[in-house]
Design brief:
With 210 residues, the chain is an alpha+beta fold. 24% of the residues lie in helices and 28% in strands. It is built from 6 helices and 10 strands, in the order ααββαβββαββαβββα. The protein has helices spanning 13-16, 25-31, 59-68, 103-114, 138-143, 190-201, and strands spanning 40-43, 48-54, 79-82, 85-91, 94-99, 119-123, 131-134, 160-165, 168-176, 180-185. β9 and β10 form a beta hairpin. The protein starts with 12 loop residues before the first helix and ends in a 9-residue tail after the last helix.
Length: 210
Amino acid sequence: MAEPTTIDAGAGPVALRTSPLAHLAERMRAAAVTGARGVALTERPFVTMVNLRVDPASDAAVRIGKTLGAPLPRQCGHTTASGPHTLAWLGPDEWLVLSHADATTVAGELREALAADPGSVVDVSANRTTLELSGPAARQVLEKGCPLDLHPRAFGPGRAVSTTVGPVAVLLWQVDDTPAYRLFPRSSFADYLARWLIDAMTEYRGPAVP
């Protein structure tokens, strides 16, 4: 269980927030495996996430692309990036903006770019958390419960798709060819998914079976 937080009467909500997986931080650290079959799991909490809906052929989409510094990706699985922002395709007229910038600022700038055109901009940062699975054995761990073909010939850095890992729905994004993957589960399913991944990592502590 997470240690109780001492509440400062002058502290704001940001200072007092607790990530969905704070109570598993030590367990995730202890589960890490090093070496040729290495794999590690960490939480990257409080990433700004903004859901965006807009007609990709509209002037608003062009304005939004200029605001973010990158065009909206137009195909399933594609991402684009600029500065602190990464844009992941969710559907023909839907994207998830992932950012290191302040959520209120990002959402405000996007609403200004959308203006009166049809569409929506919604801050969904509290809806999901971010898990990062990395290391030489990361792909093999995911393949135990993900229906996607994750082989480099089919899935590589910059790809992001909605799928499942175990029984949990996630947005899965391959960040680099370490390989490192980021998984975005709903906050209410994050504990289950983290425990599932920790269990799936266990076998890599031992030698490979010929």
